[in-house]
Write a structure and sequence with these properties.
Chains A, B: InterPro entries: AMP-bd_C, AMP-bd_C_sf, AMP-binding_CS, AMP-dep_synth/lig_dom, ANL_N_sf. 2 copies of one chain form a homodimer. Chain A is α/β, with parallel strands linked by helices. Helices cover 29% and strands 24% of the residues of chain A. Chains A and B meet through helix 1, strand 9, helix 7 and strand 16 of A and helix 1, strand 9, helix 7 and strand 16 of B. Bound molecules: adenosine-5'-triphosphate (ATP) (2 copies) and magnesium ion (2 copies).
Chain lengths: 547, 547
Amino acid sequence: MLAGRMMDFPLTLTHFLERARTFFGRNEIVSRLPDKTLVRGTYGDFYRRTAKLANALARLGVRPGDRVATLSWNHQRHLEVYLGAPAMGAVVHTLNLRLHPNELGYIANHAEDKVVVVDRSLLPLWRKFADQVRSVRHVIVVPDCPAQGEPTSAEIDYEELIAPEKDEYPWPSLDERSAAMICYTSGTTGNPKGVVYSHRSTVLHTLIVCNADTLGVREADTVLPVVPMFHAAAWGLPYAAIMAGSKIVFPGPHLDPPSLLDLMAAEKVTIAAGVPTIWLGILQLLDQHPGKWDLSAIRSTVIGGSAAPPALIEGFKSRHGIDVTHAWGMTETNPIGTLARVKHGMSHLDDAAKLGCKASQGYAVPFVEQRHVAEDGTILPWDGETMGELEVRGPWVASSYFGGEGPDRFTTDGWFKTGDVVTIDREGYLRITDRSKDVIKSGGEWISSVALENALMSHPAVLEAAVFAARHAKWTERPLAAIVLKEGKTATKEELNAHIEAKFAKFWLPDDYVFMAQIPRTSTGKFLKTKLRELYGDHLEKKGAAE
Amino acid sequence: MLAGRMMDFPLTLTHFLERARTFFGRNEIVSRLPDKTLVRGTYGDFYRRTAKLANALARLGVRPGDRVATLSWNHQRHLEVYLGAPAMGAVVHTLNLRLHPNELGYIANHAEDKVVVVDRSLLPLWRKFADQVRSVRHVIVVPDCPAQGEPTSAEIDYEELIAPEKDEYPWPSLDERSAAMICYTSGTTGNPKGVVYSHRSTVLHTLIVCNADTLGVREADTVLPVVPMFHAAAWGLPYAAIMAGSKIVFPGPHLDPPSLLDLMAAEKVTIAAGVPTIWLGILQLLDQHPGKWDLSAIRSTVIGGSAAPPALIEGFKSRHGIDVTHAWGMTETNPIGTLARVKHGMSHLDDAAKLGCKASQGYAVPFVEQRHVAEDGTILPWDGETMGELEVRGPWVASSYFGGEGPDRFTTDGWFKTGDVVTIDREGYLRITDRSKDVIKSGGEWISSVALENALMSHPAVLEAAVFAARHAKWTERPLAAIVLKEGKTATKEELNAHIEAKFAKFWLPDDYVFMAQIPRTSTGKFLKTKLRELYGDHLEKKGAAE
Ligand SMILES: Nc1ncnc2c1ncn2[C@@H]1O[C@H](COP(=O)(O)OP(=O)(O)OP(=O)(O)O)[C@@H](O)[C@H]1O
Ligand SMILES: Nc1ncnc2c1ncn2[C@@H]1O[C@H](COP(=O)(O)OP(=O)(O)OP(=O)(O)O)[C@@H](O)[C@H]1O
Ligand SMILES: [Mg+2]
Ligand SMILES: [Mg+2]
């Protein structure tokens, strides 16, 4: 080999910070507080405050590699920790505030968090597990609401902490492969496991997010990360916004549809990103009040984390002229892995076929590679039919978990096993039929719960549908569907089966329907099928016995 | 430090090749031959032919690190070498066919080229320096025109060479820091020097080119690299197009305005990139024949390599609705360093102010850093007035030249000295006032030749203007302007001075004007001011003596 002769310039988050200050000092960062007031800052303020924070953390004894945890909603101060801790060589660890205190205790201990930055509004939650976390030396409280009760002397006010500090910091030069952030999977598949993003993986992911054919984040954009910053780095949007210099709008804790719509209209948001549940709620509200919110600035809503039902994508487009970008990713993939864009060469297809592409999980973004394999590891054909477990690799895919747990998720030839069951078609579009742990196997045949759910969610009375495996005497497992109806609507088992029967083999149709007010969800907004199975796993057996 | 736990997936060009085949197999590559016929291929063909080429090169004995030179116009087979050689671990070395045979001999020897791929239409040029190149083992001839004269037995036909080979190749895994391409500076500043791009630098540059706020190359684009592939990798556009999957249109040797306009209209080009001279010619032709070519598909023309005069940018926009993207770069920067985009926060400015931004050299793209320094190395303020030498650094900036030549271009604190004299304003926009070797110093004061040229080129009779230093008895140097008039137009010294005098201090105005049919240029299309000084350096002294 002949060595290149280009500079050894590391890919670190420090460059984003410097760039934001140098070129985009006047651009805005808007944060909503718990009391709904808006706080406005600029990238210039943000840079100076981040430098102050770094100085303060150094004073508190934070050293390279130390974990600085956050227990926070999405807001500017959270962003200051997001950049400040990694740029000084420490590691930010985002705690998922939707988890049970015991899980949080386990995770904070496992990561050996040394400092915790916690929103004052979340102090009650923190105090539920604080005792369990032996590693913590300092608790910094973000004053996002008026103080309540007695403040502990060990809890330091964020603003008081940074006030006396200098607004410049001698950022160290860092190895691009050093850790920048730790993010834990939510633990629906065993104990939560830590994914350790490096500066390099985060930077490369950011470059891809800003690519024109991915999300194409630009300086002229106004970005609203609805997805929490504790969920896979809010899909990398905060970093993308900083690199591009975009205006950022943080929703704080107000993630209900009317609050989000008010914010999108008032701040002229151009890109917003969140899980399907959020967008289902928003679409329902828009349908009820057409024209109430001026969303003309929006150029794309990004949906991921769970399958975006075709009816959702189609509804936004046809009824409100809003384009949906559907993306797939995981905590383990920093997170964006694939994105559903209709290829240029397919632009002659009819609307239904295009919707078929847009509602798929898409194909790999540059530098991610995809394949699917049978249970015995055989690589499967891209025929649009054969189901297998999706495997991916790339510079922003995990190579191991923190502490070396779960080694079985990594193949010997360098791929990560996603746990998602997919088909891949000739064009490379992949379609998730199930998560492997949720697969329904009826008499030895796989049935795709996702396909059934999408079909059910196109019924006018259905708000949400989750299909899962119930035990069955003869077939071992049979599909059962949990249904949430739209307000004031009704539907029967017969109507629902009639609505979908043309699309599926007869044996795919659910054996029964259970109607619920709400489908149990994971902390990241996915259907919690383990819970459904716990509640209704014996439903068909009982019914069989009763009949 | 805590190490990240993400995959060690290298940033190599191999991924682009695989991606093109996997997702964009049907997308087109169109090449114009010397006889003006168009050859159409697809990314699928391209992949298979590139694999065949790699097998053939391996058979010829090409080993990792070996240099495979090209002496070629822009066309698909050139692209096959561009990707095939680096992906097999070799290094492509693009020879600049506009250089003198002696220079080419020097460069090919210096790079120790082992194989040369040469267009049949350029065989006469190759034969002029072939004897000088001791390292060459094989000459591969691209059959771009009918054979003339006796073919030497040592010259292998490209098509015959690859025909028997397999269309798969076991691409090796490569170190991302290994060399992918060598490109020589054109040598107007001393001996030509080799810049060695790595896979990493090329990949990162490509990611930036595809960023929405840089050129934002997308799959739906049709890209026309007018800039030669031997000139700083055609500004990275071929790689950007492959990563995005865009249709590519190669102009071959036909770079005259009517040929380019025909091609742009016929192939519905959306992005075209070239030096100002090309665009000046095209604008003139469009002005003469408004409406003759349908350029409605164009979304941006990229201009760089020399300063784009404001009148050019304004003319395209106001008279033809075409947006110009002005970018600055060097062979040493892979090449894009800065880009002139009007910031979102400046969108309220009037048209003149916006044109002032668009006609500047812009500000650094992500991961490039810029500063300017005085002769003693002092870092200068960003006040829009103070002139100094531009220095840059970043992952796609050279850290040394091949063979270690020119070490004085690299500062001890890790920056590259560009040789461009600039001002930088508060927003970070830089404006090249001169190349350091072309600076005019009148009585100890710097005069910006570029500012004078831009002002002169806004005169309706002036096609091109080059201002340079002529010797002067009293002031040591004084500005002299070389002018090319538009066809059928006239102008006098008095008219030209009157046109620009409001904009400049009196002592900046050229002492005299010389009218020429053509301004001498370098092989990369820049004004060759050394030549102008050679021809007219004594013009004022002689005139003084005569008066
Ligand atoms: N667009 C999408 N369509 C369908 N499923 C998706 C999509 N995006 C993400 N997912 C699902 O989300 C999973 C990744 O979720 P994430 O890493 O955020 O947490 P989690 O997997 O729920 O946590 P845990 O691993 O603890 O169960 C993917 O493996 C996939 O099953
Ligand atoms: N947009 C631009 N505006 C003004 N000048 C530009 C622009 N883009 C490039 N240049 C000039 O081109 C130079 C880089 O040219 P390049 O590396 O392609 O070859 P070269 O410098 O002419 O060769 P040599 O170094 O042998 O003289 C820059 O240093 C700058 O002077
Ligand atoms: Mg998971
Ligand atoms: Mg140069």
